[in-house]
Amino acid sequence: LGEELRVRVLESGRQLKMGVISPEPKHPLATEILPGRLGAPAADSLQKVQGDLKQLLNQAMESQTGKSMPNFIINILSGLNTNFESIDLTEVITKLMPRLKAYLENSGVFFEKYLENSILKFLGSSESVTPKQLADLPEVKHILDRDRKANLMALKFLMEDKEALQKFFSPRALTTLNNSISSLLSDISHQQGRAVAQLDSAEPFQVFSFTLPLKEGAQTARLKVYFQKKQKSGASKGFRISLLLSLDRLGDLRTDFFLLDKDLTINFFVKEDSTKVKIQENFLELQELLHVFFNHILLKVSVTEKKITDFDREDFRVSGDRRVDLRI
Prior knowledge:
The protein is α+β, with helices and mostly antiparallel strands. Helices cover 43% and strands 18% of the residues. The chain is built from twelve helices and eight strands. The chain has helices spanning 41-63, 71-83, 93-105, 111-123, 131-135, 138-146, 148-159, 163-166, 171-198, 273-280, 283-290, 305-309, and strands at 7-11, 17-20, 205-211, 221-228, 238-247, 251-260, 263-270, 296-303. A six-stranded mixed β-sheet has the order 3-4-5-6-7-8. It has a two-stranded antiparallel ribbon with strand order 1-2. Helix 1 (41-63) packs across helix 9 and helix 2 (71-83) packs across helix 7 (148-159). The radius of gyration is 23 Å and the shape is globular.
């Protein structure tokens, strides 16, 4: 008696049908236990893994001449190498946005969904099809060539037969390569699992986070992308991203972008009043640059350390369950 239960409302009306929700797992999501700051170990770890893998890929591609590296291995290494090309955040927006778009689309998080969409599209126009025909589809080949998860899984398969790679990588390099593959695939699986958990939440967005590959020596950059769930037809669709940077002159800077149709809202979050003033001084110039691409632009800046420290935690709790306190 008096025990509090977490329940989910299954049916409502004249009768209320509810189901008891199992207790939350004892082990929280990785993103929930991270220290809420830019230098969090997870972000630093992924950045190091990306850097180590990029270095190995470059060395392998440069030294493969004369070693008769099979084309299928070259294609895998080339696909990953392209995926981890450094992003220059100082580029003009017309160049930066396509780079970010390609990085997100090929991140591996959407691999199965893209494959499913391509195959279903083909099946809708064909009465019978063989697995080989599906594998030979140009859209499928494009995904397999460029997607990070596809190339990581292919490389992992090759790692199981080390003789295939021993001619091109030293034992130490193979160990680093294996660890990098495991870390990156684990991150992708974690993101996909979290996305499934978010489907039952009341939040209108599904959230994915990424550690961007920057030039060597650059500060860490974290990106969150909010994908809007399916809504009723006719409802407005918004697009939201959040970027966390650590800059030499401005310190930690969080920028949230929200785009609705062609109206853009940008919220800057900083830790110091002096940083707020510096950003406000550039509002006019920034508006002039952006007005070419958007109808209406709203710029805001706030001094709040909490929005910065909570970057890796605020969106990743599955909190959409409706709770009812039943006391009998």
